[in-house]
Every structure is written in C-alpha cells, then in structure tokens.
Amino acid sequence: MAMPDDELEVPETPDVDELQLTLELGEHGLRNIDDALKKAADGKFLKVARIIVHALKTLQVRPTELYVNVCVRRIHALVEEGIFEARGNVRRPRWSEARLRHH
C-alpha cells in the first residue's frame, strides 16, 4: 500500500496535483470520503493510516499518495468540526490516532 513513508508527513498545504484531485472529487466526492472515514473509524483510537486504508478500500480507490493526503486533510477537517478527536500529528498517519468523538 502506498502510505507515506514513516518519517515523512503530509505537507502542511496541498500541492497542485492534490488541489486538482480535490476539485475533480467535488463536494459530493469529499462527502463520500468523509462518510467512508467515519465508517472506518471506531469509538476507540485507531491509527490514522488504518482508518484511511479501510476508507479507501470501501470506496474502491487505490491508496495513492494523493488520495492519502486528501484523506489526511479530511480527517483534520473532521477533527476541527468536532466529529473526530485525534492524538498526535494527523499529518503523520502511521504515528497518529483518531476516533469518532463520543457525543
């Protein structure tokens, strides 16, 4: 699977290719990614990388670096919205954890 290297983290800002993918996905595609991420998450903390791989598998999308980066940003947005909570730097998917926030 094409997860980012353990020592690397997703860049703070998206590059041109990632922005293009985001535009191509559109609001509907990003909502589908959010839904898949929520379904892949649990009430207990899981590695962000695991959540992403399961979500992309559900969407039947190959986990390329671009898709992983988009998913990392979506998880960060879900944390900001209070839907997820996270431990560690989410931009390092193999070294951070996230879960659905208990309501």
Keywords summarizing the entry:
103 residues, three-stranded antiparallel beta sheet
Helix and strand arrangement:
Elements: H1 16-40, E1 46-47, H2 48-59, H3 65-80, E2 84-87, E3 97-100
Antiparallel strand pairs: 1-3, 2-3
Helix pairs in contact: 1-2, 1-3, 2-3
Question: How would you characterize this protein structure?
Answer:
By secondary structure, this protein is mainly α. The protein is built from three helices and three strands, in the order αβααββ. It has helices at residues 16-40, 48-59, 65-80; strands spanning 46-47, 84-87, 97-100. Strands 1-3-2 form a three-stranded antiparallel sheet. Helix 1 crosses helix 2 and helix 1 crosses helix 3. The protein is globular, with a radius of gyration of 12 Å. The chain starts with 15 loop residues before the first helix and ends with a strand.
Quick structural overview:
The protein has helices spanning 16-40, 48-59, 65-80, and strands spanning 46-47, 84-87, 97-100. With 103 residues, the protein is mainly alpha-helical.
